[in-house]
Design brief:
This protein is mainly alpha-helical and 137 residues long. 99% of the residues lie in helices and 0% in strands.
C-alpha cells in the first residue's frame, strides 16, 4: 500500500511537473507572441511615419513646382509686356521721324517758294531799273 501510495505520489508529482513545464512553455509562447506583436506594431508605425514624410516631401515638391511655374509665367508676361512697350516706342519713334520729315519737306517747299518770289522780285526790280535807265538815256 505504501509502495502504491508512493508510486501514485510520484506519478502525481511527474504530472504536476509536466503541467508546470507546459505552463512555462505557454507563458514563453505568449511572451514571444506579444513581442512579435509589439515589433509588428512598431514596424507599422515606422512605415506609416515614413509614408507621411514621403507624402509631405511630395507635397512640398509639388508646391515648389507650382511656385516655379508661376514665377516663369510671370517672367514671360513681363518679357511680353516689355516687348510690347519696345514695339510701341519704335512705332512712336517712326511716327515722330515721319512727322519731322514731312515738316522738313513742307519747310523746304516754303523756302523754295520764298526764293522763287525773291528772285522774281529782284528780276522785276532789275527790269524797272533798266527801264528807268533807258528812259533817262
Amino acid at each position: 500500500a505504501e509502495r502504491a501510495a508512493a508510486e501514485r505520489a510520484a506519478a502525481e508529482c511527474a504530472a504536476a511537473e509536466r503541467a508546470a513545464a507546459e505552463w512555462a512553455a505557454a507563458e514563453r509562447a505568449a511572451a514571444e507572441c506579444a513581442a512579435a506583436e509589439r515589433a509588428a506594431a512598431e514596424r507599422a508605425a515606422a512605415e506609416r511615419a515614413a509614408a507621411e514624410r514621403a507624402a509631405a516631401g511630395w507635397a512640398a515638391a509639388e508646391r515648389a513646382a507650382v511656385e516655379r511655374a508661376a514665377a516663369e509665367c510671370a517672367a514671360a508676361e513681363r518679357a511680353a509686356a516689355e516687348w510690347a512697350a519696345a514695339e510701341r516706342a519704335a512705332v512712336e519713334q517712326v511716327a515722330v521721324e515721319r512727322a519731322a520729315a514731312e515738316c522738313a519737306a513742307v519747310g523746304w517747299v516754303a523756302a523754295e517758294r520764298a526764293a522763287a518770289a525773291r528772285a522774281a522780285a529782284e528780276c522785276a526790280a532789275a527790269e524797272r531799273a533798266a527801264a528807268e535807265w533807258a528812259a533817262a538815256e
